Amino acid sequence: MGTLIRKYAYGHVWSLRLITLAGLIIAVAINGIAVHQQFIAGGFAGLSLLIFYAAGILSPGIWLVVLNVPVFVLGLFLVSRRFFFYSLYSVLITALFLQVLMIELPIEDPMLAALSLGFLLGAGIGISLRSFGSTGGLDIIGVILFQKFNLNIGQSSFIFNLGLFTIGFIFLEADLVLYSLISVFLTAVIADYFMSLFNQRKMVLVITSFPEAIVEQISRRLHRGSTYIYGRGAYSGKHRKIVLTVVNNFQLKRLEELIYKKDPEAFVIIENTFNVLGRGFSRRMIF
């Protein structure tokens, strides 16, 4: 059953549903908040909005497609076919939602609007990236730079957005640009959160007098693997087997119970991990 669930979770149907949901959320954020508040977003969506405000022709959705054309030409040769077509679908479905979804969220306070915009855009971008696709534009450029030069996606986004908001001060009121900057910062935070939402695990080190018994319990009751790390006590000088295992948040309490039931004197170290790749956990995301 677990294999079947993982296969579906990484299948095309599930990914396209996530991308569609992401496009809807992004369209709601842009049409429902950004356009009415005269905010600009980060990335190519923000550039589309800035051109729309300055030129007053076409629509943000159409500008989004136009700006993405050269990027997709580049991405066709430098990223995987799956990532390319998922990203292409994402841009097209987002542009479609931007064309047909004409709404205004009843938010009057500009600070609350900026926070809401950042949350919605971050959720949309994070969900899209979690689907092994992207929202196109800057995401594709960021992935290419990450793969080729190991440049963090957030760093490339910061450089682009720095130039974008510098230009924004020319066409928009300073207050609007500053509110937009707040929303962009929150977008990055929320996008990272959604990216890691289902990947966070706990790495646990157990120093115990009964390592074999605890490893057997971890395998039998939690269905998780373990690894022995051989260490030596600095004070006692005794050689020990240290148990290393990785569990999810729901299994952590059960792990603590079985450890201290076997050895009340056990010394346990718990570390948060951003991502765990391998059997029983996450698959490697290939862009």
Question: How would you sum up this structure, described in words?
Answer:
With 287 residues, this protein is α+β, with helices and mostly antiparallel strands. The protein folds into two domains: 2-196, no CATH class; 201-273, Alpha-Beta Plaits. It is built from eleven helices and four strands; from the N terminus they run αααααααααβαββαβ. It has helices at 2-9, 12-37, 43-55, 60-78, 81-100, 110-130, 138-149, 153-171, 174-196, 211-222, 249-262, and strands at 201-207, 226-232, 239-247, 267-273. Strands 2-3-1-4 form a four-stranded antiparallel sheet.
Distance between the termini: 27 Å
* Helical coverage, percent range: 55-70%
> Based on helices, strands and strand pairing, what is the structural class?
alpha+beta
Q: Provide mean pLDDT, rounded.
A: 83
- The amount of beta strand, in percent, is 5-15%
Please supply descriptive tags for the structure shown above:
287 residues, alpha+beta, Alpha-Beta Plaits, 4-stranded antiparallel β-sheet, 11 helices, 65% helix, 10% strand, elongated, disordered N terminus
List the helices and strands and how they pair.
Blueprint lengths: L1 H8 L2 H26 L5 H13 L4 H19 L2 H20 L9 H21 L7 H12 L3 H19 L2 H23 L4 E7 L3 H12 L3 E7 L6 E9 L1 H14 L4 E7 L14
Antiparallel strand pairs: 1-3, 1-4, 2-3
Helix pairs in contact: 2-5, 2-6, 3-4, 3-8, 4-5, 4-7, 6-9, 7-8, 8-9, 10-11
